[in-house]
Amino acid sequence: MSPATIEVDYLVIGAGAGGMAFADVIAEDSDRTMAVVDRYDAPGGHWTMSYPFVRLHSPSHVYGVHSRAMPSDADATGRASRHEILDYYDRLMRERLLESGRVVYLPMHHVEEVLPGRPATARARCLVSGETTRIVAARRVVDAAYLDVTVPAMGRRPFEVADGVPVVPVNELVNLGAAPQRFTVIGAGKTGIDACLWLLNRGVDPARITWISPRDAWLLPRGQGGPEPEYRQLQRLRDCRSPGEAIGALERLEMIVRRDPAVTPGAFRCATVSTFELAQLRRIEHVVRLGRVRRVDAGGVRLEGGDIASPPGTVYVDCTADGLTRRPLRPVFADGAITLQPLLPCLLAPSAAVIGHLERLELDDDTRNRLAAPAANPSAAADVIAFYATRMQRLHQWSGAPDLFDWLRSSRLAAALPGLDDMGEAGNRDAAGLVAAHLGQLARPDGGDGRPRPVARAARRRLVPER
After folding, report:
1. What pLDDT is attached to residue 155?
2. 283 alpha carbon, distance to own chain's centre
3. So what's the pLDDT on residue 153?
4. What pairing do the DSSP bridges indicate for beta strands 182-186 and 287-288?
5. What DSSP character marks residue 448?
6. E strands along 3-149, which residues?
7. CA distance 445 to 376
8. Which segments in the chain show pLDDT lower than 50?
9. Which of 232, 263, 305, 351 has the largest count of CB atoms under 10 Å?
10. Could you write out the DSSP letters of every residue in 280-312?
């Protein structure tokens, strides 16, 4: 049997946060058609696989799509739960995209082949029936899965586990059935933070928790917006002459915080904490900083920098998935193709909405790409400088593009870029540009002074016994 054929303007590969934000903006044009192909059974991307108690790390009003608010938008500090997010994307697909009559949705499908061009031709195979659909995209193929977010439930853990040792993905914390004697949380990213907070909020004594943290990370304080907008606070960094000075100034301004006042963080992954959450995390005293886990067995944990012993009754909680994927940056716009990537670090949803709006404007791809230079997801501690430099550069650049600036200010996602409304004044825009240029120079690999930046390494200790 020959495959069925669908002819559309756009093929969107992936119905996660980026694909849905892009499709939502394109849907505002009454005549453009789309096929949305996704490997999961429901829209929402990694949220369909995430642990039950996960919430956004940022306020809800900087997430989702341009056209539709989340119920928790009303609270400036509200953070949507997994259940709210999945319902949000399900309703968006059914009530906005499918209801328009111009969108075809193919869940549980994998795009096996794309022949580029205008039109492009793709083949999508159903993961259930095995049947194939041929898709012809007259305008673009939109890769919304290039920077796929990963969660522990998606793949194999990156360390060995001996037979019979109770290592569970974070998703299974809610299904343990009995109270373990001890918990060892493996991983210090957003997932590790959430797991520790969940245990503490469920009454687990912090003395029963061991936290394996390969690298402490700088954290973004949540819900502590000061009287000054971000671009004005960052002007105080204009006198900094090295990355270390800039990071110190950011900490003094309380624009970044550290979990342990005695430990200098070696990472930055855009995780956020409230003042209350930070105080809770600091109650966990047994933090192991011996690098990554290599093996867990009946005797304990074997790490890069040493071993720790574990008493009987310990349950290990795997929080090791690398949620923020780092892949080589590509031009967002190319002939017949769009590759969705963050334009604002760590914020793919508002970035994808901006990309969708640029696609609707009468611009050439060179101009679009100048306005949509992708930003790498951060990893190292020094990346916090590039994080703020990019935000300031976007304020300056986007406010100088009237069609984009006016649309952004009308969008609910404008909250992702604080200070946007102030950029209507030339003096404020100039200030943001100067800060962006200075921080951008400090964020260079040589630190802006022509000398290679030293790489900080955490001190290694051996044989740290559990209490």
Report:
1. 63
2. 27
3. 63
4. unpaired
5. T
6. 4-13, 34-37, 103-106, 109-115, 120-126, 132-143
7. 14
8. 1, 448-467
9. 351
10. HHTT---EE-S-SEEEEETTEEEETTEEEE--T
Unique residue bearing structure tokens 């700088």: 218
Torsion of CA 25, 29, 33, 37, to 10 degrees: 10
Tokens matching residue 301: 């944990």
Tell me how far apart the alpha carbons of residues 12 and 107 are, in angstroms, rounded to a whole number: 12
Q: 3-class DSSP state for residue 207?
A: helix
Model pLDDT for residues 292-323, shown as the tens digit of each residue: 999 999 999 999 999 999 999 999 999 997 66
Task: Decide if 210 contacts 308 (C-beta within 8 A).
Answer: yes
Over pLDDT 70: what percentage of the chain?
92
Q: Is 414 exposed, middle or buried (0-12, 13-18, 19+ CB in 10 A)?
A: middle
How far apart are alpha carbons 61 and 70 in whole angstroms?
7
Taking CA atoms, 197 is separated from 169, 189, 284, in Å, by: 16, 12, 10
Alpha-carbon distances of 463 from 298, 310, 321, 361, 398, rounded to whole Å: 16, 12, 26, 60, 53
- Output the six-digit token pair for 439: 């921080």
Which pLDDT value is given to residue 327? 84
Give, in degrees to the nearest 5, the angle at Cα 124 between 63 and 374.
Answer: 40
User: Which of 30, 19, 268, 32 is CA-nearest to residue 149?
Assistant: 19
Handedness of CA 252, 238, 418, 196 (dihedral sign): negative
* Beta strands 120-126; 132-143: pairing state: antiparallel
